[in-house]
Amino acid sequence: MKKKYYVILLIILLFIPAFSSPINTEQNDSKSNDIKVLTNDEPPLKPFIYGAGNNPTTIDPIDCWDTPTRDLIDQVCEGLFAYNLSDPILPLIPMLAEDFGVWHTITELSVKIR
Fold first, then answer.
1. Alpha helices, DSSP H only, in 1-114?
2. What is the pLDDT of residues 11-66, one digit of tens each?
3. SS3 for 30?
4. Geometric angle at alpha carbon 62, from 106 and 60, rounded to 5°
5. Which of 44, 94, 106, 110 is deepest in the core (most CB within 10 A)?
6. Distance from C-alpha of 48 to C-alpha of 52, rounded to nearest angstrom
7. Residue 56, exposed/middle/buried by CB under 10 A (0-12, 13-18, 19+)?
8. 3-class DSSP assignment, residue 81
9. Does residue 72 carry a pLDDT above 80?
10. What is the rounded CA–CA span in Å between residue 10 and residue 83?
11. Do the beta carbons of residue 98 and residue 107 sit within 8 Å?
12. CA pair distance 71, 10, nearest whole angstrom
């Protein structure tokens, strides 16, 4: 019998916030689309702070072996070419390069950069 009361109480506690939340009834008029200008009376905007679990060990893309370092390099660096991840064949696409370039020798490649 007590389990039944606990289940009912739990259901009530879960559904009360869903029905008690205020509904936004603002009409979409021109005042809501205005740009907000800060005055001297208002506090300044706070910066967005991002936390990471571990610090990156290096910023060298060649020496990247751990996840925090790879995450940092992915946000900062962009290569000449990348794989098209939306295609199952994964073809190379130029990113910073304008085209795929011209091979002069086995070790020399000339690429136009954007």
1. 2-20, 67-76
2. 776 766 655 555 555 555 555 556 666 666 767 778 877 777 788 888 888 888 99
3. helix
4. 135
5. 94
6. 13
7. middle
8. strand
9. yes
10. 50
11. no
12. 41
How many angstroms separate the CA atoms of 17 and 94, rounded? 50
Range 13-32 burial, b when 16+ CB lie within 10 A, else e: eeeeeeeeeeeeeeeeeeee
Tokens of residue 83, six digits: 């794989």
Residue 97 pLDDT grade (very low, low, confident, very high; cuts 50, 70, 90) = very high
Amino acid at 79: G
pLDDT tens for each residue of 82-96 = 999 999 999 999 999
